[in-house]
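Run log, item B.
One chain of 285 residues. Sequence copied directly from the ordering sheet:
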Amino acid sequence: MTPTAPSRAPRLWSRMRGLSMHAIIWVVGAMIVVPLLYGLVSGFKNTSELSSNPFGLPREWVTANYTGLLASGSFWRQIFNSTVIALATALVTVAASALAAYVFARFAFRGRELVFTLFTIGLMFPFAVAILPLFIMLRTFGLLDNPLGVILPQAAFGLPMTIIILRGFFRNVPGELEEAAIIDGCTAFGFFWRILLPMARPALATVSVLAIVTSWNNFFLPLLVFTEQDWWTIPVGVQQFKGQYAQDTARILAYVVLAMAPALAFYAVAERQLIGGLTAGATKG
């Protein structure tokens, strides 16, 4: 009896710790899901019922709040603009960062760590700090009311984090693999394109998702660059819609829910791909 008694304490502690972690996960999940469900259900109400019955189910489901927005051409134009800008930003960010991270990870040259440190310092400066010189630069190059005026700055501000993530992954690739590729006649760029990038799919997927989500949620830069309604993105559209229908709270909630739906759908799909890529990388390792 006495030898088994002490072994029960770590087992009990491990079980309690597991229950605590599950409780925290449920609480955090509820904090995320409950506001989404509230906005979804409230979008089916009218404003008067939303004031008198804010938390209950609608007495009469008002589908016109959603169908009216889905039939609007401006809403779909904003979805298209946000999608194009987000994909282009991710492409530029990942392409430039992958090349830079490859150089920082696999080549030894004087001043390498200094240059890499300069990139990491970029994490310390928020976008708002550079807003005035950035606006002057965009105006000088004629990039106002141009999607490149949003894509290029977003890619530039996304470089530091992306380079840090990819450099760490590239440095963990065994040097023997590169030596074997060079012996087989593979050039440095050939090793990067044919071997390193396919092995780095989990890391590339991670930074691509980060770049797309960051671009999709960016509000300040599109508001600064775009004055024409034809190039408004979803965050700018939500703000303008809120100002136009300030008294119709239910319709605003419906707009917000529809604006979040593509991002949530993309993240659900991307999460599965990320898990599959990480699992494949682990099994190949």
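Observations after the first pass:
- Confidence is low (pLDDT under 50) at residues 277-285.
- The first helix runs from residue 5 to 42.
Flagged for discussion on Thursday.
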